[in-house]
Structure formats: C-alpha cells, structure tokens
Design a protein that fits this description.
- By secondary structure, this protein is of the alpha/beta class.
- The protein folds into four domains: 206 residues, no CATH class; 97 residues, no CATH class; 112 residues, no CATH class; 257 residues, no CATH class.
- Helix content is 36%, strand content 19%.
- The protein has 23 helices and 23 strands.
- The strands form six sheets. A six-stranded mixed beta sheet has the order 7-11-12-3-13-14, with helices on both faces. Strands 2-1-4-5-6 form a five-stranded antiparallel beta sheet.
- The two termini are 43 Å apart.
Amino acid sequence: MKINSIHIQNFRKLQLCTIDFSEKETIFVGANNSGKTTAMDALMIFLKTKSFKTQDFTLCHWKSLNEVGENWIKADELKEEDKSVKLLEQYLPILDLWIEVENSELHYVSHIIPTLDWEGGLLGIRLRFEPKDMDELIKEFIALYNKSNKLSQEKGKDFKLWPKTFWDFCERKLNAHFTIKTYLLDPHKYDEKQELLDNNIALEGDVLKGLIKIDIINAQRGFSDANSETVESNNSKNLSSQLRAYYDKHLNPTLEPTEKDIDALESINNAQDDFDKNLKESFKTSLSELEGLNYPGFGNPQIQLSTKVSTSDGLQHDSAVKYYLDKDLSLPEKYNGLGYQNLISIIFKLIRFRDEWMKVGKNAITDDEVIEPLHLILIEEPEAHLHAQVQQVFIKKAYEVLRNNLNLKDNKDFTTQLVISTHSSYIAHQKFESLRYFKRNNSLALPTSEVISLKSVFGIEERETEKFVIRYLNTTHNDLFFADAVILVEGPAERILLPHFIKNENCLLDSCYVTILEIGGSHAHRLKPLIEKLGLICLVITDVDSINPNDNGKKCQPELGKNYKTNNDTLKTWHPQKELLDELLNLNSDDKIKKDLPIRVAYQKAIEFDNGGDKTIVYPYTFEDALVIENKDNFKAIADATGLLKKMVEASKKEDLKELVQETYTIINDKQAKKAEFALDILYFEDPKKIKTPSYIKEGLNWIEEQLKSNKQGLIN
C-alpha cells in the first residue's frame, strides 16, 4: 500500500494542483513563495491537525464568499438552493487522497472500497472542509450581523461592528461551524475532475485511522538557550517552577551539605550510576544507527547518556545529554555545535516515529491494536542548522533509518513514505526523480502555483539528454530549482565576470535570486526540456560561433554577406532556430525572445563606432573579444598584465578598429588561450566598476530584470 498522489483545491495559493508521490522520498522544491509550505500544511491540516483558519481558503475566493453572505442578509426568504452546500462548493478547501492498494490488503480498506467487486488498485477519498450544518451557519451569521448592525444604528455610529462580512464572521466562528467531511471517489475517473453529487454521503468517523500513521517534524526547530542557568522565567506562574527555585536556593542539600545530608546524597549517586548503566544498554541499538551517518567522525566526541538525578526531581524532572571526552571528563550538550544537536534531534525523532509505529519495546502491540500499513512522515526544511555535507548525508540516510527494523526492511506489508520540503540544493540534487517543483503562476490577479514532477520532464526519446542533465546538475551547485531566474552562460569568463556586471549595472537583478550556470554553447539546449517545463525566466548568453561552410566548416570571423553559418546548437535548435549568420546578426531584439515562454538568447551583435562622422561596424566572435572591443580604452590603461590579458591589452592599442577586431579574434582562438585566467586577471588588474558590460549581454540583463519586475509586482498584488 502506498500514496499514489494528492489533489489539492482551494487551499491558500494552491487553487488547483496535483502532486505525485514517489515510493520512498518525495521532495518539494521551488523558489520562495512558490507553495511548498502550503502543500506541507495542507497535508498536516487535512490528515493530522484538522484545524483551519480563514487564511487557508484561497484569498481570491473570499470576495465571492462575502457576496454569498450579503445575499443571505438581503434575502426576505431563503430558498433551498440558497442553503445548499453546493453554493459554497467551488470555494471550499479540498484534498483528494489517492492510495494504491493490493488485493491482499483488502481488510485494511474494506470501509472505503467503492464497490463490492473492487479487486485492488487505486482508491480515492475526498477530504473537504465544509459547513457542519448550513442552516445553523446561516442562522447564526444573519442573527449576529443584524444584531451588531442594529446596535450600531441605535448608537448613531458610522462604523460597523463585528461581523462586518461573512469572512469577518468566519474569523471567529470557522471551526465552530466547519469540519472535514470525507467522501468516496470513483477510481475509474482518476484523471477526471470529479464533482460530488447530491447523493454522495459523507463517511462516518476517521476513515484513515488504522490505515495511515502520520508523523511531522516542523520547520524552524530550535533549541532554547542551553547556556542559561535560569530554571524559570521571571513571569513563570508554574507552581513547580517556583517551588524548584525556592528549594535550590534555600533547601538544596548539595549546597553546603550537613552530616544529615550525606546519606541522601550517597543514595542519589548510587541511583544515578545504576540508571546510567540501564540507559547505556537501552540506547545501545539506537545510538549505533548514528554511526551510519558518519558522525561522530574523527575528532568528534562520542555520545554518552547520563541521568541527572537530583534532590529536586520530585518538583521538576530533568535529564542531561553529555559528550564523552576521556575518563572522568565530559561536556554538557550545550557545548556541542547546534548543527550536530539538530542532526541528532532529527534522527532520534525518526527513530522514535519508526519504533512507535512498529510498537517496539514497552510500546508493544496489544490484542485490540493494529499496526497501520502505511507510515507517512512530513519534514519541513531539515537543512536548518545543518552544514552542506551533513545535509547530503541526512537525505541519503533518513529513509534507511525509517526502515531499520526487522519487520520492515524488505517487507512490503508495511510502507514508509517520506515527504520533505526544502530550500537546500544539497538535498535536492541527491534525488532528481523524487523532486516535485512548485511553479509560481503570477498571471492571475492573485498568484497561484502548480506542481511539476521532475520525472515527467523528459520523454522516452530524450533519455540520453536526461542522463546528461541529471549528471550535470549533480556535479554543480544545483540551486536551479530555487531561483527566481536562471542565466546560462558559455564559459568560465562569463561566469566569473557576470556577477560583477549585475552588481554594478543592474541593481534590481542583484537583489533577486538568480542562478548562473556555466553550460557551454554546445550543451545549453540540452536543458531546454527542463527550463521550459519549469517555466523559469531564462537568459541564454552564448556565442555566434560563425563558420565558413565553403571552407570545410572552419571557424571564421563574423561578417555579413559571406553566407556564413553558426555552429551553435542552442541557436540552431532551441531559439531562434536559425543557422544563417546574416539572419542571426540582423535579428531584432524582440525576436530573440520566445513568443510563449520567458526565454531570451543573447549573442554577439554589431558594434558601431563613430570616428568623427566616419562610422565603423565590427562583429565580435566571443565574449572575450566583445569585452575588449567595447572597453578598449580601459584595457589600454592596464599595465604589467600577463598571459592572455597582456595580449588583449596590446591588441586594444591598435588604432584601426578592423585590425583590433582581427587581432582579438586571432588571440582568443589560440589553443593556448586561458579564458578563466583572463577573467581573473581582469579582476586583479582592473576595477570591475570601470568595465562596461558588453552591449549584447546588457540587453539580455535588462530584459531579465523587466521580467522579474513584473513577477514581483504580481507577488505584491
């Protein structure tokens, strides 16, 4: 048994989306404010907490809901259709849960099978947050509204009292009048939009009880200040805390003990030793699991558990975790790193969740209990306080920890599914097929999101491309799935210098989350399926790579009217899908943008110089010569340069522009040319603020900035 997918409607910004679940780990990724947390909260609220707020409704629906409330107030007499839940149905938060069930597991789901002849496969249930009783809801709303309105009028006040609107009423009364009701869905209509009919009767009780065990680790887990010795806060009203404080100060026998205190202290010490032995043996198995995380590693202290049996335990029990260093030498937990503490905390939570599920030890199963066949664990942002290496270890080992029980291992009778939301590229790149990308849609009045399964990006005919992309992303700092926009660049020189161009000339772009990937002109197009599927704002900065087809396709300096072509696969097969150099060089700026997607290419274009009325037009070949040509005066002034930069400086001193262009072309195409070294030397010898961004790149950066402006405006609305 496993969860196949969930379908969410009208829950915050997830107005309509489907999320496919992986068999083991499902990882939610996406840019900030894309809906990852919303999806996690939907699972938590519908399946676990059952507690809603008005803000959990999709915001754009509240105007319509208020209009419904206004009609209730204005109506002299309400008709039956005015009191039907159908009136609110299109606005109600919904979660459809689809589960794959084997025929042998029929006894678990006998209460939710659609027909008696059902023999396994998909089962669907709809969890809908709806009014408990429409008549009572309407009655109380109208009564309270009329009462407050009458009172306001009697007092001659212009302002309205609560409830001003139906939304205002629900702010206080939502959970009093609304509840989650469960309905069966038709498995044969899995791919269709299913509407509940009038004869659909809600199922009784909690249908998921005994079927799914749900455990949650919320985001922003933290530790209190362990360095504080204060037992209670100044505002504490807890009696035991107050008694503890008094006892520690006035009665504690460990402070200046008398003869009559010695026997008591000895007994406590003996008790602590005996219990420490018991703890050591009891936690032996659990602590050994941590070794699989490669932590503690070399130079890190081993964990030692110790009780803290004190004379005040009758008022407030306390226990301590210590880290063993040497004989008779250990440190309290507070002296270890927060990241290590957090890793240990998460792993032990997972161990506890697993053992509670499997009824281990004193939690052993009784005759009237059953072990749920499905265990769902939700973890929000496990990367908090974990350094990069530990994040990778965690995602590799977490599922193993959850299955480390003799009754689990390869046992298909019990299924574990782990759902993680993350902003960590170190976690994301470990599990490509498990990724579910939350794509923002800002085209509507209020932004919504849809969810894309990464396993569906590449078709059958694109398997080799898929392998390349996965391998490439796994070998880079893969923050593609969390960025507001992506810039694909040709080589190392662009990658090194582009951040400086952005910082100095495109301030808005510098404040956005933009990732720069060095992919090369011959490979950028391989990311096409992924970029387009995700709907990412994408700028491709590449080279014209001109060749002469009449000279065996050899490289050549770009010129018009020579029947030259481009050897750049991105320009030929992705966009603008043109091969003739004349067509590329004459293409206007708008035609470099894809019509239906926020994707633009930027490549070398004509550079025009005006020498006293005498205009000269030249065409650079690569980023490096375009940079030198458009900044020739700055390069002239560089002294003591070496390597490729020195050659470019010498070339920049040529007064004849045609000679300058020819010289830079020759230099940059030398097999010995070290482009990364060239970029680094520029940063060393020259202030990046003085260097002007090549015009073809500047156009692209301005475009991507405008795209992000419109998106940010959409988020604000």
